[in-house]
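so the lab meeting is tmrw and i was supposed to have these ready like two days ago... anyway. pasting both below. for each one the top line is the aa sequence and the line under it is the structure tokens. i havent really looked at them closely yet so no promises
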Amino acid sequence: MTFRPTALAGGRGTRRPAVLAAALAFIGITVSGAAALHLRMTDSLPKQDQTVTESPDEIRVWFNQKTSLAVSRLGLDGPGGKVEMGKVEPTDNPRSFKARVSDALSPGVYTVSWRTAGDDGHVIRGRYSFTMAETSPLADSGRP
């Protein structure tokens, strides 16, 4: 049996776990910092997974950084297929854009697909869903 006093006295053998832990912490910080730099959707109207009772006039999305309107797109698919929408338009916020919904939506689940680019120029795509609820005839007539 060989005795290694350096391992017991804080020598090279005990520093390896500390160096490994420091390296892993650095990698974790670097990766999470890089992820924070990439464009991501922060809000939407209608909101993700929201159930709405009135048909939206427009779809609007917000991001964590300024978007490039030149490459931005919005699409809407519902129970009957693709929904006709207007062109993407700027809003009063450079981190947001919108598009008008041409017709009233019928009840069902709708998927919004979006595409844009952020500060780094990379085109990013995403999607989310919301539900258009059925409205009762009483709700439409305005009677209690």
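ok protien two:
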Amino acid sequence: MQGHKRAIMLLAGVIVTTGIAHSAAIPSAEPTSATMPSVVQQYIADRMSLERTYPVTISPAHMERMEKFYQDELARLAALDFSQLSHEDQVDYVLLKHKCDSELHQLALEKRQIAQMQPLLPFAPAIDELMTQKRLMQRPDAQKSAAALANMITQIEAAEKNLVPSHADAPKFDRLVARRAVLATLELQGNLHNWFDEYNGYDPIFTWWAALPYQ
């Protein structure tokens, strides 16, 4: 039963750091050295840290970093001697390997989806750049930030004009692609809001330049 619960928790997203643990009260003839709980806990902590550090999930930086993370995790698992693990460790090993393989497959799928959405999200690179500067703890240049925000408005207006159905050259997009673009836009809007709130009111020069184009 304990192993079954451990499997469900890991497959559900491996989101509880204490979800995989060995019980010292259960006697076993197998090796008692528990290797995988610490591996899984480190996996969870590292993944959560990367998701906070790279919040723009459709950005190339996020994709590349998460891809490297899962590849590194698979290499870490490959370095372990599977035959020397306890039965419960072997279960955790298989589940975590499956999780990493699945995430890499999902990233490859998302890359193709993002490429399809790009014409609908011309402002995404600018927001990603602002969030990158925030991640690197670079103080924003107020005037350049205001110009970037103003340029986003221009890009959005141009995209809206080009996508009007009556426009002769208006590109056609699959409804599913358009729906994904809407969800991505909402996420980018949240990213931009977090970036603006980081400096607005704390840096008077930033507020003076950026407040109006942000609105």
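from a quick look at the 2nd one: The helical segments are 2-11, 36-53, 60-78, 87-117, 124-135, 142-162, 175-199, 204-214. The chain has a mean pLDDT of 84. will dig more after coffe
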